[in-house]
Amino acid sequence: MITNDDMDQVFSALAHTTRREILDHLRQKPGMAVGELAQSFDVTRIAVMNHLQVLTNAGLITSEKVGRTRRLYLNAMPLQLIHDRWIDAYSGHWLDRMSLIKQTAEAVAQQIYEED
Length: 116
Hints:
CATH class of the domain at 4-75: Mainly Alpha
CATH topology of the domain at 4-75: Arc Repressor Mutant, subunit A
InterPro entries: ArsR-like_HTH, HTH_ArsR_DNA-bd_dom, WH-like_DNA-bd_sf, WH_DNA-bd_sf
Pfam family, one: HTH_20
GO molecular function: DNA binding; DNA-binding transcription factor activity
CATH architecture of the domain at 4-75: Orthogonal Bundle
Organism: Sulfitobacter noctilucicola
Shape: elongated
Largest sheet: 3 strands, antiparallel
Number of helices: 5
Distance between the termini: 58 Å
Keywords: DNA-binding
């Protein structure tokens, strides 16, 4: 169960381009070291660390310490919970609307066909 406060943290974390790019990197290469990840960005390592802290607080990344290296992993569970809560519900709404539009278009086409 994800609370509204949890969702606020996830949406806030996702609002920044660099943080979304960090998640993309971790999705493509799980277990990246912090230093390796920082080299992918044109910002200071401190800035990357600050972004990582925001993502960690939102539950979007996890890390493990391996020797002197910190390995980073994407945790997609908060995104899945938001998807389940928001995307599924709204896509159902639009599927209903699309079905209505399709039925209306088919009825109009049938009426035109019968008039000819």
